[in-house]
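Hello K.,

You asked for the raw outputs rather than the summary table, so here they are, unedited. I folded two proteins back to back in the same session to keep the settings identical. This is the first:
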Amino acid sequence: MKTKTNFFSLALILSLLLICFTTVSSVHGNSSERLTPLTPTDTEGVLVFQAEHTNSPLGNWEIISPGHPRFFPGASNDVMLYFTGNAPNLGPPDSPIKYTFKAPESGTYQLTIRSSRILEGARNDHCNDYFVRMEGDFEPGEFGSHDTFSKSILESDTKHYFSSVPDREWGWTVLGERRIDGENVKKRLFYNLKKDEVYTLTVSGRSKRAIMDYIVLFDTSKVSMADVRDGEVKLMLEPRADGSSSDD
């Protein structure tokens, strides 16, 4: 009788464990709880992630906000992510941080990151890039005369950089760069995404003192890079206690 009771107790425990495992798998596979919070905008076809809203360990990324000795104005919400690893000009992918999202509509999306840097005497072409990679059911995209890299490259760490941005001022990443057949090839980063599919963008540090404000993926059929760069896409930020926003 005791053996029979133990058998049923073990069966009950295994059943409960199976239910828990199935529930956890379902939550992590489909629930919006695992998605990175989006910053609302006034423009359709734009996904915006505040850099600091990742759930990943920051590693060599440091949050800078008012009161920090390196703080300077211009970041949305007055918060930025500052990379402290590697050298000012290069280094391996370091401290990967992830942003997981669901595509609102099928389309060709372009990646750009609002960025700045602190040179501290470094050359003008230093402190100006990251590594990025995309995971999920996508294909390489194109827009007009611009194509992009192969899917295998887009799925692996690819240099993504901004240039001609003065020290402690703000600009945008535009091009990715990879070494292919002995040449440095530069292309914009386009992804053909599918509606309601879940994707993960990973950003890793490359050059020291590069700074992220926020990340944008925009549908090229609805929004242009010029719209993003020139401020035509407005972030709908939470007002501060004084009634203003950090973009005022």
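The second followed immediately with the same parameters:
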Amino acid sequence: MKKRFKTGACIAILSLCITGLNAQKNSAEASLQISGDSGNWKISDKTTKEIIAANLPYAEVDAYVHGAARIRNAKKWGFLNPQGKEIVAPKYDFVYDFDEDMADVMNNGKYGFIDRTGEEVIDLKYSSAHSFHEGYAAVAMQDKWGFISKTGKELTPMKYENIHDFQGGIAEVMKNHKHGLINRSGKEITPVKYDAVYQQYATGLIVVKLNDHFGIADTAAKKVLSLKYDDITDRISDGLIIVECKKKKGFVNKAGKEVIATIYDSAEPFANGKAKVTLKEEEFYIDVNGKKL
């Protein structure tokens, strides 16, 4: 009878394998050394001292990044692989480092993308472009921005004034000088109507600002919780974050729910299950439920 792994075990094993492969790739890349000068470059292994390629006739050879080195010959750019062979000969006005096995390249002011074989998989037709992040790249046509997949399919129309790269499955977009958020399906999970949007990486919260008040975006429910705060700190301790409303402080949890009312004149972050607060000139400690100790 065939043995079967549980799903969690399979994911854990796959994760370890990917991590190991990435570590091997990064280690091999770090061992490559570029030396020489214009018209006479050399690639060698810093550990074994082995010469991988010599007498490379380029005007410039950059360090290896993500498995490829940018090369320049006169005014045109291309790429070398770790063996010193051309992925693509210098023929572009500029090239950017590979990210997610794709590199954005530019000719005559137009941007597109090549893959690891050097093939132009996305035509050079965009007026600007970012590298790929989480499977999508931000691109612009006639000063309007949108996202495309690695096949060149549009995730969103070219309708935004500006956009930021995806991080954690969410991207900030801007239209009519207002800010919002979209997900990897291209859906606006927070309306594009806020003065600012902040992703607090320390707390995990997504904070929005409108008319000098801050709120917390619940992206799953596609709504904003309590757009009333004067400040939302970017530090989390014991699962709680200090917020301020009308000069009074309280605490919200990681879901953005206010669990300790904003009634205190001052408050310090929690430590070991308690936080120091001040109320009507009395200083004392409270627990994570707001109970006075």
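The radius of gyration is 26 Å.

Happy to rerun anything if the numbers look odd on your end.

Regards,
P.
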